[in-house]
Design a protein that fits this description.
Dihydrodipicolinate Reductase, domain 2; homodimer; about 30% helix; alpha/beta; 2 domains; about 325 residues
Chain lengths: ~325, ~325
């Protein structure tokens, strides 16, 4: 049994982490919810009992074995070292340490072995990259993978609770003819599509788009994999969808790829066009699996394959994957 | 001055056709709005005057020089021959004749010359393909074009007025906790994303996705162009967005492509990431131009380029392009 801290316990991902610990029956002795001073004193529920949120300080981690962080990159950089110093393993949902060569970046179904020999910090991947590697790994292993082009349809919950409220309020206002001005996003998100997630880099790609490439390469152990992403916010509350076109090293048919994916850990194939069965954002909500459909030979390339991938960004894209990492560490005695 | 019939005058595209004729000051002597028996008798306004909608029959086209059709493929197949017989040129917004070798498929900024020698019917392209070729044509001419991968973010107005009402009612219901069941789409569209437009073919592509490839090849006169599309419905009222990755024959820098597109007829470049300037669905509403931004070197290919294209699907994707075709025919004496 373990003492588990959740840093950012009142946020969209942190509160989902507590739900996932509960649902998956993680062996918790003490749950310690932590947050900024602003949220300290509020109460979260765990297994029907109230837990008071404590202020995050360098002294917060005494006796903690596992610290799940989801409070932004700056807080991870500031407080993860103190948690490790206190003897905890940090599983960090921010991008702060993901590309650090000393830090494993892990989706357990894909590269669990990378957890071996961690030095106290394990990184949880980006919410687009995590589902993507679940779908790509079996194909890369079977026939090699050379190039990935992905266009995302990302829900506002990836931005946080304030963005969910902004989408709801803006949409209600729009329908009533009195739309409030945007504050979380630079433009209205209600009935709109924003090709802008994270900051723009000199290359013209956004930070989010660059992360998808870097993290996919790192998790698949394919440093030369060519990746191009267009990351787009859509007026959806929950779950990210991805239109994916790949090029493999050896050709593979859509049928063979579908069979591989049906057997892939963590993946569920929903691919019966005749009955309008394909992955949908709203159906993925609350689920830990990665849903894959629209699997077809890419008409534009002799070794191309196209597919449609959907996962709950707060679960497989964040909280559930973090808890699965904790489970792996415990199961293998790698804590 | 011309007698102009609008077939499907009460639909989302047909009513926009009447607005565009008005706004662009098309030289109309008589406007003849036509629709099915169900809509006959209703009234549309043109230049401030009421026009009664007449029932579409084979006798509807006497004295008509230009017939704009937007009432579905079946009505086009059934009634276009009668219109041509009566001496009209048909500009057809359905997919019925688009791939007929005897029928020009035209975006005037791209392949106006194809209108020469028409045989009475001209086809108006698909709402994803029309904006796409406006952006691709100058690049194809300058450096050659080999492959196009496009993921779309298509608004519900592409389905018609009932779909707009479904999105609005479903969204309002969802926010109030009492969501009506879907009827236009097979799944809820409110706060959801549907990777399904048109019918599925055996290849796994949808009819819409196949159209994007076929029509792009035909309009660009590039029969061997490799195209793969994923066409997706998003909860947006108006305007389609497209994430586009292309491969050119000769390399071209993002700066050079941006300059070409700034000079391209019908295109407006909105590409200042530092000030959050990029094309947006809601900003494109009511505009006839194709908006292009997020122009960048594709990190996954040495001759790759990525961009983001947005256009009002009812205007450049349908009604405005049809009226522009009429203008071209008149201007060049090709009627």
């Amino acid at each position: 049994m373990f003492n588990v801290a959740v840093v950012g316990a009142t946020g969209a991902v942190g509160s989902t982490m507590i739900r996932v610990l509960e649902e998956r029956g993680f062996p918790v002795t003490e749950l310690r919810p932590l947050a900024s001073a602003r949220s300290a004193g509020s109460v979260v529920e765990y297994l029907g009992k109230p837990f008071e949120v404590q202020e995050l300080t360098e002294q917060s981690f005494e006796g903690i074995q596992i610290a799940l962080f989801s409070a932004g990159g700056q807080r991870s950089r500031d407080f993860a070292p103190a948690a490790v110093e206190a003897g905890a393993v940090v599983i960090d949902n921010s991008s702060a340490f993901r590309m650090d060569p000393a830090v494993p970046l892990v989706v357990p179904e894909v590269n669990e072995d990378d957890l071996r020999g961690h030095e106290g910090i394990v990184a949880n991947p980006n919410c687009v990259a995590a589902p993507l590697v679940v779908a790509l790994k079996p194909i890369a292993d079977a026939v090699g993978l050379e190039r990935v082009i992905v266009s995302s349809y990302q829900s506002v919950s990836g931005t946080g609770a304030a963005a969910i409220e902004e989408l709801r309020a803006q949409t209600a206002g729009n329908l009533a003819g009195d739309e409030p001005a945007p504050s979380v996003y630079p433009h209205p998100i209600a009935f709109n599509v924003l090709p802008h997630i994270d900051v723009f880099e000199d290359s013209g790609y956004t930070g989010e788009e660059v992360k998808v490439g870097n993290e996919t390469r790192k998790m698949l152990h394919l440093p030369d994999l060519a990746v191009s992403a267009t990351c787009v916010r859509v007026p959806v509350i929950r779950s990210h969808s991805e239109a994916v076109h790949i090029e493999t090293t050896e050709p593979i048919t859509a049928d063979a790829a579908r069979e591989l994916l049906m057997l892939a850990p963590g993946a569920v194939v929903l691919d019966e066009p005749a009955s309008n069965t394909y992955p949908l954002a709203r159906d993925a909500e609350g689920r830990d699996e990665v849903f894959i459909g629209r699997i077809r030979a890419d008409a534009s390339h002799p070794r191309g394959l196209a597919m449609w991938i959907v996962a709950d960004n707060l679960r497989k894209g964040a909280a559930s994957n973090a808890v699965q990492i904790a489970e792996s560490l415990v199961t293998h005695g790698w804590l």
